[in-house]
């Protein structure tokens, strides 16, 4: 065996393999970063046609979204709930995050009586920050 043959085989072995470990580490770390920093949006469960308002403000720390459709059906966490059970559900959800607020998404065609009943139930549950959502 000549020296030329030894040098040739050793360079061929090194060049034929590509180490993917550093690339996989970077991809895995990026995946973890995006999962941890992702902003999860809570949905009320139905699409409502919200009224417009000239005095709207952005609310932070929204914990509970309540939607009221044109048929005066109340939806919390993508479930239809009865008007009488709104207070107990809000109390339970508010206990999980005491700094959170309640935002009510009422349709334009919904009944004012239903909206005020939901607001009263949320306030009776101990939530101070109750807001009514409007169109952007």
From TrEMBL:
Q: Which residues cross the membrane?
A: 20-41
Domain of life the protein comes from:
Bacteria
Q: Is Endoplasmic reticulum tagged as a keyword?
A: no
GO terms for biological process, alphabetical = protein transport
What are the alphabetically sorted keywords of the record? Cell membrane, Membrane, Protein transport, Transmembrane, Transmembrane helix, Transport
Show the InterPro entries listed in the entry: ExbD
Q: Which GO MF terms are attached to this record?
A: transmembrane transporter activity
What is the recorded membrane topology of this protein?
A: Single-pass membrane protein; Single-pass type II membrane protein
Gene3D superfamilies (UniProt xref):
3.30.420.270
Where it sits in the cell: the answer is: Cell membrane
- One Gene Ontology cellular component annotation held by this UniProt entry: plasma membrane
Concerning its family, UniProt says:
Belongs to the ExbD/TolR family.
Listed name of the protein: Biopolymer transport protein ExbD
This protein's species is Parendozoicomonas haliclonae
Gene name tied to this protein? exbD_2
């Amino acid at each position: 065996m000549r020296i030329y043959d030894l040098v040739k085989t050793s360079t061929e072995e090194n060049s034929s393999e590509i180490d993917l470990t550093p690339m996989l580490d970077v991809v895995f770390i990026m995946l973890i970063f995006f999962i941890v920093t992702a902003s999860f949006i809570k949905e009320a469960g139905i699409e409502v046609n919200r009224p417009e308002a000239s005095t709207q403000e952005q609310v932070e720390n929204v914990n509970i979204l309540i939607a009221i459709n044109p048929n005066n059906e109340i939806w919390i966490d993508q479930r239809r709930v009865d008007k009488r059970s709104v207070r107990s559900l809000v109390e339970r959800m508010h206990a999980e995050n005491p700094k959170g607020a309640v935002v009510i998404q009422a349709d334009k065609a919904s009944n004012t009586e239903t909206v005020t009943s939901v607001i009263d139930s949320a306030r009776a549950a101990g939530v101070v920050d109750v807001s009514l959502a409007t169109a952007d």
